[in-house]
Amino acid sequence: MSFHGDHTPDYLRGVRRVLVGVVAVVLVAIFLVWRIDNVRVEQLRVSLIDRFVPSFEWTLKPLAAAAGLVSDFRSYARVYAQNEELRRELLRMQGWREAALQLEQKNAQLLALNNVRLNPRLTFVTGEVMADSGSPFRHSVMVNVGRGDGVADGAAVVDGRGLVGRVAGVGERSARVILLTDSSSRVPATVRPSGQRAILAGDNRATPTLDLLEQPDEIRPGDRVVTSGDGGLLPPEILIGQVVAGPDGRLRVLPAAQYRRLDFVRVIRQQPVAAVEGPGGLIGPLVDAGPEAPAGGRGR
Fold first, then answer.
1. Do 177 and 48 fall into the same domain?
2. What whole-number distance in Å separates Cα of residue 31 and Cα of residue 36?
């Protein structure tokens, strides 16, 4: 049998097939060796690792360096994005700072123009919350200030954000504070900017209700609610919270006070107004107008 010159056998294809088959068999064998749970196979795996891994250590270093480079690039991208966000936040804060400075200047000008004086009768004492009622039907806390610190029954209690409640029961060194959410709490309030008067009534929920509103249609969610000062028990213009729409359709108030982190509170002390006894108490002391002028018709 003779071979023609233009029909030579393709030995290279056969070699490739053999090599592919050998590699496939080796990979399957390695897979099976690594999956078999046996003591002897485990010793064989350890021996193979000790024999071949050090030989390929030079190939692992470039791979580790490339992986570190990719990780550093990702970290750089995250840092760049955070930097851009901080720059935008800084621009917004600068705008708020300018607005705050303008409002502060305007407020100082208005105070100077109207000759406004702050109420000197209002002082406060800071107390620590010792315990709460621990009952779902009674929302109150105990503070470690009392009658000896000038605390009076019915005094307003605030934290760093707004009104917490009022004092209901005073001892010599402690007092009980009824929170705004308690079912027995009733606070006269004013809704801003409409100026409507209402009663903030607690019902053992996180958001007390607004009752006795004259025109509820003028109230919008987000309106500020402050104390009205009616009755003289609580000082006026203490922030209570903002109006929200309750799931039952009623207008409620989200308190500004942080009840979950209520560690320290301030009890506002009001100096009592001097009682007027008789008609003469309404007339102040006479102002000295200088040397007396000669009274006409006297001594003649």
1. no
2. 9
